[in-house]
Amino acid sequence: MIEVLYTFFIFSGYIKSYFPIWNVYLPIDFTLFFMVLLIIVSIKNYKLISFYYFRYISLLFLFYTWLIFTLIYTSSETYSLTKVFLFLTNIIAFIYPLILYKKFSIESFFKYSLVITSVLNIYFVLYILPRIYLNDLFYTIHGNYLTVSLLSGLNILVLLIYKIKFKYTSFNYIFLIINFMTLFLSGGRSGLVFSLIILLLFSLTKVKLKKIKPIRIFQILIFLLIIIYISYVIFEEYSDLFNRSFSRLSLIFDALSGKDGGNSIDHRLHMISFSIENIFSSIHSFIFGSGIGSFSYEYTGIDGRGYPHNIVLEILFESGFIGLILFMSFLFYTISNKYQNVFGWIFLYLTLNALKSNGLVDLRLYFSILALMLIYSKKKQLKGKKC
């Protein structure tokens, strides 16, 4: 039950984006509802938390305290307060599994998240996406293709690297095929590129350690090509989505070769350029930043949600070098351990996405994986001492 609540909380933003399509209107925000439930469960079980995890939680709260301090000088009058509150969802995503680490099942969480996200991903790709581009419908959730791409890549890594096991092995293959299909059909570039890079690096590492034969990599590549071909033939009416995906992918190579990379890439490059220019415009901007929630106001003149699609630049822009040092201290201390950790690959995948697409308040899944990484490492450490 505790894993079910946590799963709905982590993916609540993605789930509730479909509510207008389903004509679902709740009296309370979906994310807030599960956030309150998690807080209640955490309070009831706070005695279960190990002192081992307090050091990580303290570092995260130190970074959060600095974000609150930047409210003193931020140029954002309203969204800054909203952003401070929204960041709490990341903190809860990190703390909740650590409090309940003795009861929390990583395997169960991955199974629930795999089922929920796979169903929503295939629903979006096969039902919503064609209507967006063919009939201009449901445009309000157009941006979900990025989430579908991210989660499809994540699910594939969980299945192939973490090696989640269902009671019936056929479920693993079914979910693998579904997520490869949604990965290629969604049109999102980051999930496709980064997941394939991680799989390649993981495979090469296994080859180096002589845990996997080179022929195995070739078999995986052939498997991927077969899935793509079968999907293309079976879903011939969705051929435009395949063409769109590969067309968007080609824009990356165009941008790298100095050609026009399309509006999306050009816009993000402009935001990156603006961020760097602002960060190094003065000693104060570099050290202290412009204040939390200030990016949108400084970039567009509108006090609202906005970020440079790179969490390092976002932290530097809004909280300065001090904020970046505090965040990196928390991050590196959390991921540094001497135990072999399969979560490292998943963390790297999410980090690459965070450097390309995500905003600071959209990192519930990111902080969730950090927490699960600590739990996994601690349990493996304890297991090693018993041997």
Question: Brief description of this entry?
Answer:
This protein is mainly α and 387 residues long. It is built from 18 helices and no strands. Helices cover 74% and strands 0% of the residues.
In N-to-C order, the SSE pattern is HHHHHHHHHHHHHHHHHH
Described by the principal axes of the CA atoms, the overall outline is globular
Low-confidence stretches: none
Radius of gyration using CA atoms only: 21 Å
Helix content: over 70%
Largest sheet: none
Counting helices, strands and paired strands, the structural category is mainly alpha
Percent strand = under 5%
How far apart the termini lie comes to 31 Å
Q: What's the helix count? A: 18
Number of domains: 2
Got a strand count? 0
Q: What number is the mean pLDDT?
A: 83
Question: How is this structure best described in words?
Answer:
With 387 residues, the protein is an all-alpha fold. The protein has two domains: 45-104 and 276-387, no CATH class; 114-238, no CATH class. 74% of the residues lie in helices and 0% in strands. Helix 6 (79-99) packs parallel to helix 18 (364-386). It is globular, with a radius of gyration of 21 Å. The mean pLDDT is 83.
